[in-house]
Amino acid sequence: xxxxxxxxxxxxxxxxxxxVKAFLEEGYQVVLYGSREETVTKALNELNSEKVEGKWTSxxxxxxxxxxxxxxxxxxxxxxxxxxxxxxxxxxxxDKYTKDLFEKVMSLNxxxxxxxxxxxxxxxxxxxxxxxxxxxxxxxxxxxPSGLAYPxxxxxxxxxxxxxxxxxxxxxxxxxxxxxxxxxxxMVKALPEQMIGPMIQxxxxxxxxxxxxxAKAFVFLASDNASYITGAILPxxxxxxxxxxxxxxxxxxxxxxxxxxxxxxxxxxxxIRKIRMLFISIFLxxxxxxxxxxxxxxxxxxxxxYERINRQTNTxxxxxxxx
Length: 323
What we know:
323 residues
């Protein structure tokens, strides 16, 4: 147990809320930030702990954040860990993108971590120690087929993490990031089973990550067990990023050939064509009609899976016939 103090932005649901719970279990005093008073109140009611408080200050308001963080340090005696988790994801096609949308995503995903990190670093420098942790993403290595600003923002977060680790290391301030893969958030839970199954099969560990998996990574990186780790971007994705990079061995691709993905007695080439057409059909039919983030996300996942199978099949160049 510890008497340390942790701030978690975007702490009202999903990965953020699980992270708040994990740090409370470690004995931290936690201050969570949310976008609105009602979401903060709902999270506090769920947590039902005397060791957590909530705020809904704008994360891009420099003076307000500096004031908040100074008050937190004054009230609790220190500011030991900052977790920049608040973020916005979307999947608008590039030809429909607007400057306002781009700036909206970058404001929350990049400017807010900058503002909060600077305010925290000033306090941590004075107290001689601290940890800053950022939420990156698997798309920071691989990009995504639409929603330009989100992967751009996560590439930026990686750059911020690495650069600040070099600049702040001399003050005993460690800076790292966690890059989640597909995680069982409310959005993923809402996807149809027909989408979930193929997603799982694309993950070498054959399961979708839980928010608690990401939270435990944050706890580790904040702990003394990680006292010599800084400047790291830690993938927590069941090796999906490795799969994405196509470090191709036959074993990497076996998921395409094993039951239940092929009907009994059916030729693998036929099944792959059917799966590929299924994914592109989902994308082409769902994407133009998508009315919310869940539908956009489902269409995006379908396209990613179609693209992977297409690339792998072309790259392997008749490997199915050889096998």
